[in-house]
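Subject line: Sequence and fold of a protein, written as structure tokens
Body of memo: The sequence and its backbone structure tokens, given next.
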Amino acid sequence: MIQQVKTAYMYLIVMGIGVTLVILSIMVPVVSSDADFSLYNTGWNGCSKFGTDIYNTGSFVPTVDISGSSQKSIQHETLDKLDGKITPKDSCIIIIGPKTDFNDDKDENEVGFLHDFLRGGGIVLLADDFGSGNDLLERLNTTTRISRTPMYDLAFENNVNFAVTTEMTNHPITKDVSMLILNIPYTITPSRSAEPVFNSSSTSWLDAIDNKEKDEEESIGPFPLMTSEKYGRGELIVLSEPSLLINNMNDPTRADNAIFVQNLIDYLTEGRNATIIDEAHRDINDPVSFTNQFVSLMDDPYKKIGVLITISVIFIILNTSYPKRSLEGVRRIIERLLAERPEKKDRRSPLEITMEKHPDWDRRVLERIVKDIEGSP
């Protein structure tokens, strides 16, 4: 009875360990945000994939403000804090969907920094539709502007919100790109020195009446959707369709969108060892914060099966007689194999054995001697 209770307890302990290993998970802090275009947003409207691809180039430079961050939220340094930390000709700055204004104060002059950064040979990508991008463009003294009117096209994918375009110029960013799928894009009014990278089609229009229908009085395309212009020794790139960079649109299943994004990353980072993605101009109502999530350590079903098999074997070894019997049987087999085999007896007569060893002896003489020894008449 005692042995049965002991076995039962052992069974429960071993199975408990097995179940724990199978469902084992840990709580880890995860940096997240719900803000549109945020690197920390893994949802459809975030740019986490774009940020990961930039990180994989080895040039990503974090801008987290340690002194201003806490367990509840993460703060990022404004762009002017990069002064003296990066070299313009070796760096690029990416600004996606900024919601707050760029300061132009005497002590904190982000616009002044970007002006000097561009003139010193840096690249700045501004991807925006209805954020504060025009405020920055105006302060940089360029006449390039992003329209405040959405654009639609008679050519679209699935529904009118997803216009398509095939109007690419000969530029490294559009290499191997035949068609892009857009998501209610805005357009660009370029400066005289700006060159288009890609445009909308000739069947597109600016929906000034806001009815998603082409009316006679509305302007028709093509319209620039991405431009590039020289700024001192640097380059200012403006993209009026930042949705191309979000997780939902940066996808191989959406025409050549993923190729376009990879070309863009290659163009921005080639020969440059520092890439900064601005996160300081997000909406304060959608802060970057810490959340806790349970992460399973054993999400592979084969690992779970392996653990259960291992636990079962351990239980059998510790609490049943089958292993002992099996080991005893193996031991007996090994002993039999290793045991010395007795020498096989030679059943021939001494006379035959002697004649085999001395064939030149006289057999009749040997037979007479044997008879004499045995006492035969």
